[in-house]
């Protein structure tokens, strides 16, 4: 069993206890089901296997010491585990907390068998692609391998999941961690610092350090802006415990001098004096200093819970590093209500990625980040505040607009790809090289094959094929997140679109995803012929890359629908309306009935499908269809019928008596009509519902009980709209 715990901020290295990581859900995907690993389960594992050998691997002394104390606390055993780091040598190797450097250097001399360790934990597992980690992983084969990381999306595109069966065991993102009170809230202030970074050279994904240093250390106006902002925002600077992230040693020393000149106790910590790390850390904790200026220190693995203020005195180009640095201030501590973050923003180059930074602060949302910005971040985590000065907001919006992908820019990036990568030019390799580019942005503008054709300045002789691929992938496949259907499509590609089962509704979904018309209209005699024609178009490679990307993004549980073996749709997966109708057998190869109503009746099966849009836009809905639909809780849903329904007869009466007349009702919900790309949004399958109660007439307000509770990722949005 291999487990991969993925969260946005390191939980293991907190000084309290290790079950901060374990007490919530850790789900390990296995061949037959799930395994839950908690603090209790870990204790039981060690009790049932008292002679089990345990290995904890990290890359810093502090992490190892904190981790050992944490595990000792969970096991109530102060003798558990030996340290092997910093000159300390173990007497035995049965429970070992060791640095990756030490283990890698001594592995050959240890002569331990591959099965020696039953349980291995690797902290900061985003380093797993490094050769030192590969040696350890290839040497040992434990019963349980647990990987822990705060930053799973590697900046270099390396693959973490391949060592864990392609599955994320559990995930806790920043907004959710704050909402659950595992981390403290933050107040983020984006402040324009009156600098222009657009002329600073950009190399390998970051600004030129020397020129950035020169700009910041010869700019008293910027220093004054920083000091003024501190005094305006921080209530008591004399009790503040702040980390200030600087661009270089020269910049850090310069800022310390400026703080001291203005009566603010400050010190510096860089690679030059890293041996003083513990001393400087303690000085900040005790209040001997109020600001510790650092350079590439405290990005990961070290916790100072008392830190209540963060000063971003430089642009942080890497989202990974930004989140690690932000995490230094979000640890819970006594008498700490929140963390104050001051981010000093210059007029940035278009390469600088503001969008993903703010997306990470807000969390998953169907709304575009520009909407969040313009509306002052209404979806910030509970208790958090994100405030930008007017000038900062204008600069950020301008940057995002400039960074918006156009066909011209995409073609240019495709054309330049061979100059920057030794890999073959494929969609998968292109996305790995440009991890900030979302395939949705590509297919909004054209197909991958079309971009490659234009980059090679070829004639658009396959224009119809490009359009076919674009519509199918953009409007159908990228909308759907049914893991099983996506896997089916991948297998179909790998088989050359050959079909054995002519009654396969997933195959029929594929037909309509691409052709969008009934078979006879296109002169296809059979479903197999339709799919065979797709096989002749040469779409397999591009489609497999899209499917792999989408599959990697699709991780939530999707149970089968009870008592509906013939319906291939999964609960809590998202589909286009037509995919749903095909899945329920309402659309066949020969017949494609059209319907855009909010309900769809399947007479021969005595079923009715209810399609609900939570956030209705007056431009897209008439006054007679502005029904008030919302979630009451995870199991109850308030639904308003069509205007003609009344409880004493007809459809309204059928709804009330649906169980008596053996009519089955199914609910499909989407947040809004259009997604952030302006594309028709798919519906999430909430599954079968049963009548609970009703009020009113023409229209009726009906409360349905969901047979399966609604997914958590929909609950917050659905609940917010209840009060709208």
Automatic annotation (TrEMBL):
InterPro entries: ATP-dep_Helicase, DUF3427, Helicase/UvrB_N, Helicase_ATP-bd, Helicase_C-like, P-loop_NTPase
Residues annotated as domain Helicase C-terminal: 229-381
Stored SMART domains: DEXDc, HELICc
GO molecular function: ATP binding; ATP hydrolysis activity; DNA binding; helicase activity
Keywords, in A-Z order: ATP-binding, Helicase, Hydrolase, Nucleotide-binding
Domain Helicase ATP-binding: 15-170
PROSITE patterns: HELICASE_ATP_BIND_1, HELICASE_CTER
Any single Pfam family the record assigns to this protein: Helicase_C
Protein's UniProt name: Superfamily II DNA or RNA helicase
Organism: Marinobacter persicus
């Amino acid at each position: 069993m291999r487990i991969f715990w993925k969260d946005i901020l390191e939980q293991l290295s907190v000084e309290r206890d290790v079950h901060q990581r374990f007490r919530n859900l850790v789900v390990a995907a296995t061949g037959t089901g799930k395994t839950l690993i908690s603090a209790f389960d870990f204790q039981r594992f060690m009790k049932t296997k008292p002679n089990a050998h345990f290995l904890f691997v990290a890359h810093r002394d502090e992490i190892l010491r904190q981790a050992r104390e944490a595990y000792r606390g969970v096991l109530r055993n102060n003798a558990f585990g030996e340290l092997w780091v910093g000159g300390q040598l173990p007497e035995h190797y049965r429970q070992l907390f060791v640095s990756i450097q030490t283990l890698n250097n001594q592995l050959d001399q240890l002569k331990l068998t591959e099965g020696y360790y039953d349980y291995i934990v690797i902290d900061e597992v985003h380093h797993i692609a490094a050769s030192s980690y590969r040696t350890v992983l290839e040497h040992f084969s434990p019963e349980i391998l647990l990987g822990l990381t705060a930053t799973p999306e590697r900046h270099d595109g390396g693959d973490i999941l391949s060592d864990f069966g392609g599955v994320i065991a559990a995930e806790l993102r920043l907004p959710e961690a704050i909402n659950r009170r595992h981390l403290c809230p933050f107040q983020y202030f984006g402040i324009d610092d009156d600098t222009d970074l657009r002329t600073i050279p950009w190399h390998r994904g970051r600004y030129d350090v020397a020129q950035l240093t020169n700009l910041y250390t010869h700019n008293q106006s910027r220093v004054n802006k920083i000091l003024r902002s501190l005094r305006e925002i921080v209530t008591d600077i004399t009790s503040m415990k702040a980390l200030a992230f600087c661009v270089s040693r020269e910049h850090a020393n310069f800022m310390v001098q400026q703080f001291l000149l203005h009566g603010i106790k400050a010190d510096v910590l860089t690679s030059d004096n890293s041996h003083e790390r513990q001393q400087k850390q303690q000085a900040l904790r005790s209040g001997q200093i109020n600001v510790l200026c650092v350079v590439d220190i405290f990005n990961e693995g070290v916790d100072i819970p008392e830190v209540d203020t963060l000063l971003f005195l430089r642009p942080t180009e890497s989202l990974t590093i930004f989140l690690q640095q932000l995490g230094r201030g979000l640890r819970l501590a006594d008498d700490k209500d929140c963390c104050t973050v001051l981010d000093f923003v210059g007029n940035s180059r278009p390469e600088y990625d503001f969008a993903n930074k703010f997306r990470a602060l807000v969390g998953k949302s169907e709304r575009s980040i520009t909407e969040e910005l313009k509306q002052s971040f209404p979806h910030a985590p509970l208790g958090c505040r994100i405030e930008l000065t007017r000038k900062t907001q204008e600069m950020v919006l301008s940057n995002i607009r400039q960074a918006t992908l156009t066909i011209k820019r995409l073609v240019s990036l495709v054309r330049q790809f061979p100059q920057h990568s030794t890999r073959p030019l494929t969609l998968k390799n292109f996305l790995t090289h440009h991890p900030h580019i979302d395939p949705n942005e590509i297919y909004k503008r054209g197909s991958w094959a079309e971009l490659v054709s234009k980059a090679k300045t070829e004639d658009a002789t396959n224009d119809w094929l490009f359009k076919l691929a674009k519509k199918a992938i953009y409007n159908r496949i990228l909308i759907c997140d049914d893991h099983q259907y996506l896997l089916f499509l991948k297998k179909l590609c790998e088989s050359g679109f050959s079909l054995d089962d002519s009654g396969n509704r997933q195959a029929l979904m594929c037909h309509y995803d691409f052709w969008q018309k009934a078979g006879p209209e296109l002169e296809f005699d059979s479903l197999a012929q339709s799919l065979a024609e797709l096989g002749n178009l040469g779409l397999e490679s591009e489609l497999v890359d899209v499917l792999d990307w989408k599959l990697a993004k699709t991780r939530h549980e999707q149970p089968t629908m009870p008592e509906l073996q013939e319906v291939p749709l999964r609960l809590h997966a998202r589909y286009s309306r037509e995919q749903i109708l095909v899945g329920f057998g309402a659309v066949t190869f020969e017949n494609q009935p059209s319907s855009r109503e909010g309900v769809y009746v399947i007479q021969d099966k005595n079923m009715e499908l209810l399609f609900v849009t939570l956030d209705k836009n007056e431009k897209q809905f008439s006054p007679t269809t502005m029904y008030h639909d919302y979630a009451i809780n995870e199991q109850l849903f308030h639904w308003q019928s069509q205007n003609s329904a009344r409880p004493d007869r007809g459809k309204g009466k059928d709804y009330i008596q649906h169980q008596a007349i053996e009519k089955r009702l199914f609910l499909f919900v989407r947040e809004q009509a259009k997604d952030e790309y302006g594309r028709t949004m798919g519906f999430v399958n909430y599954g079968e519902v049963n009548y609970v109660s009703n009020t009113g007439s023409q229209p009726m307000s009906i409360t349905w009980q969901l047979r399966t509770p609604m997914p958590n990722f929909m609950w917050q949005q659905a609940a917010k709209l209840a009060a709208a």
